[in-house]
Specification:
This protein has about 325 residues and is an alpha/beta fold. About 45% of the residues lie in helices and about 15% in strands. Strands 1-2-4-3-5-6-7-8 form an 8-stranded mixed beta sheet, sandwiched between helices.
Length: about 325
């Protein structure tokens, strides 16, 4: 018998295939990105097979993968412009250690529903709701939120609203509140500036222009990387991002980035709640990130009563650069 959520998912994917909206890159670009991965190892096979879930949040479908194991589960959240595949290299280490792991795509990204309703409001509040829907559907009474990049604010805000459900909180190369250390990537500044709204839309409407902007941003993220990490960026991360846009993540990306500064301002008002958060917080941080630097990690940690920073010699996507080391640090906190 087909699950109702699966029927909804299939019908909406059919609608998406027929829709004109979204961002589509040429097949040649995808092939070039895939070719760059030659010589890199594929993700380690997990000893535990995952179970797919299609979870309804506010009438829309959130896609999740669950690796059964011992609780408390790690619930791992992506930022933008990527999706759950940024965790492909780290999850097998956690699953092989016998831990329960959940990864999911926020609405509008990856394999979650791309909502065809015109001007559907993708928001940071909606993302907290996505996380809540996943936690409730999978009956996660107490778990470890793991927030990377723009997944960090979601992890923090859910945690301070539901501290009784948090075993401990993990943050990776993310942002939260106003701080002298906060520096956003140029692509976020372009899409986040209301005065550049027309320019941002033109990037989304023109694949060649968007590809140029992504390449520009890629090069800046790699500025401090040694050659081995550059290879992983080009061969692993770049195809994830390109494929994410090719599958229709453009509208969600545009809306979410346009709200970043507003989200930072809102998060700043929540600092009194952050300062009362009792569970421990561990920041596992890639030190070679040119934007969300170690100083940014220290600034975030200073707001929590019980926070420590663990450094990894890696870039922004440390879960791709050094997956075994990141997994070791996650397991050490258990």
């Amino acid at each position: 018998m087909t699950h109702p959520a699966d029927q909804i998912l299939k019908s909406r994917r059919d609608m998406l295939c027929a829709a004109a909206g979204g961002l589509v890159f040429s097949l040649a670009i995808s092939k070039r990105a895939a070719a760059a991965s030659g010589g890199l190892e594929p993700p380690m096979a997990s000893a535990v097979k995952y179970v797919e879930h299609h979870i309804i949040h506010d009438g829309h479908v959130v896609y999740a993968r669950e690796y059964p194991g011992q609780d408390p589960a790690y619930v791992m959240m992506h930022g933008f412009p990527d999706n759950l595949h940024i965790y492909d290299y780290v999850v097998p280490y956690l699953a092989k250690a016998g831990r329960r792991v959940v990864v999911f795509d926020f609405l509008g990204f990856g394999q979650s529903e791309k909502i065809t309703q015109k001007n559907y409001p993708y928001t940071f509040e909606q993302q907290v709701g996505d996380l809540a829907a996943v936690a409730d559907a999978l009956k996660l009474d107490k778990f470890v939120p793991v927030g990377h990049d723009a997944g960090g604010p979601c992890a923090i805000n859910y945690s301070i609203d539901h501290p009784d459900r948090i075993a401990w909180l993990c943050l990776m190369n993310c942002y939260y509140a106003e701080s002298p250390t906060l520096r956003l990537p140029e692509i976020i500044e372009v899409f986040g500036d209301p005065g550049l709204k027309d320019l941002a839309q033109e990037f989304l409407n023109t694949p060649e222009m968007m590809n140029w902007l992504l390449t520009f941003q890629d090069n800046h993220f790699q500025a401090k990387m040694p050659p081995a990490l550059k290879d992983r960026f080009t061969g692993i991360l770049r195809p994830i991002v390109r494929d994410n846009f090719a599958s229709g993540a453009g509208p969600a990306f545009r809306q979410m980035t346009s709200q970043v500064r507003e989200n930072v301002a809102y998060n700043t008002t929540r600092l009194p709640d952050v300062r009362k958060f009792a569970p421990k917080v561990t920041l596992i941080w890639g030190t070679e990130d040119p934007y969300l630097t170690p100083e940014a990690a220290d600034a975030i940690a200073a707001n929590f009563p019980h926070a420590t920073v663990k450094s990894v010699e890696a870039g922004h996507w440390l879960i791709i650069d050094k997956p075994e080391e990141v997994a070791r640090l996650l397991l050490a906190e258990a």
